[in-house]
Structure formats: C-alpha cells, structure tokens
Amino acid sequence: MTGDTGPPGRPEPELLGQTVVVIGGSSGIGLETARRARVEGADVILTGRNPDHLRKAADDVGAARTAAFDATDADQLTQFFDDLPAPIDHVMLTAGGSYYAPLADIDLDQARRAFEEHLLLPLQVARISVGKIRPGGTLVFMVGAGGRRPGIGMDVAGILSAGLPNLTANLALELAPVRANLIAAGFVDTPLSASSLGADLEKRRQQLRTTLPIRRVVGPADVAALAIHIMTNSALTGATYDIDGGEQLLSG
Question: pTM value?
C-alpha cells in the first residue's frame, strides 16, 4: 500500500507561453479578461483610447505592452499590428458600446459609430491580423444580446445582434485554422454600464437580482472566464456564446 501523496498540484496554466491582445483593455470586461489571461500564464498586450486609463490598467495586470490609439482608425490599427514584436495567439475585441434610440431620435453619427465599432472594426481586425495569429489561436468579438428581441429603440442594436454572428461564422471558415468566436452579453455590471445608466444603475441591478434565473448580476469576471475558455478550447470556432444570466429566457 502506497503512502498518501497529498493533494495534486495546480494544473499548468492554460495560456502559458501565449500572447493575448485585448483591444479595449483599459477597463471593464477587457481589463478583467487581461487579468485572467495573466493568471493563466499569458503575456498580455492592452490597447485603449485613454493613455492614463491604459497605463493604470497595465500596472494593474502586469501587461507586457500597451498602445493608446483609436482602434477605428484603420491606419493606427494597422500600425499597431505591424509593430507587434512576435506572432500572437489570441485577440479579444471589446471596444465600443451599443446604441439605442427610437427611430425618430436616431443620431446618424452615433449609429455610424456603432456600426463602425461592431461591424467594420471586427472586419478590419480580421484582415489585419492575418499572418499575425498562430494557427489554433482565436479572434474573440463581443456584441450585446439584447438586440435580438424587437422593440422600440432597438433598430441599431438589432442590426448588430443579427450581423455579428453571421460575420463570425464566415470568418471562422475563411481564417481557418485561426478560430473566430463571438460573445453575446446581456447586461454586465461595468463602468460603461454605470456611465450609461447614471442614477438608474442601482435600480437596474436590483431588478436583475430579483428576475434573473441566476439571482445575481453578471459581472466582468463572468465574461472574462468565458473568453478565456474560448481561447483555451481549440475545438471552438464560428459560434456565438450567450452570457446574460438567463435574461433571454424571461418574457417581455
């Protein structure tokens, strides 16, 4: 009979030796994903528009590299990828929020910005990153899940919610063996959500705590855990993964 060898050690980090780029990584979901990627052994490269926020985020997670620029600027985005020091493994794009407004109140400039951030920017990232991402790596995009349900004010969000899954599936075929996947998130308790809701933030949180099947609010760490799983599971490509605490199951 052999002696007790004690509990097994912690498994080897799943992203050890890999590089994860987070576009829009200075706060919220992007920052939390970067933090979790570091725990899993990855080197992380963060980008964002605000240099001060980006510098603080980089110090927080121990980022290997940062770049402050507007990702919707094609020239700056191209230059960023050209300047990367070595092949990378994963790119997560979290930049930009959605846009909600009744038809009569739609600001076309804001609508264009939403389309640029959620449709054209993923296309640009996919094109520019060809040859930069190692085989088996992945592009991870994000979209809001709420736009799937028709309603007043959902015109722009509905287009994005319908368009991104199709784009992701097509990219998975065209970019193979690099993978492409999409996270469709409901309400996530981030600084962006706080700025959007203002004084109504706590009311929204309490509503979700009492109505969602999970009886709590989805946070950045929940989405980050899903993003890391998509990166590490090499069987996943071309798919859309919902994370909304079960909100889509509710009527109304």
Answer: 0.90
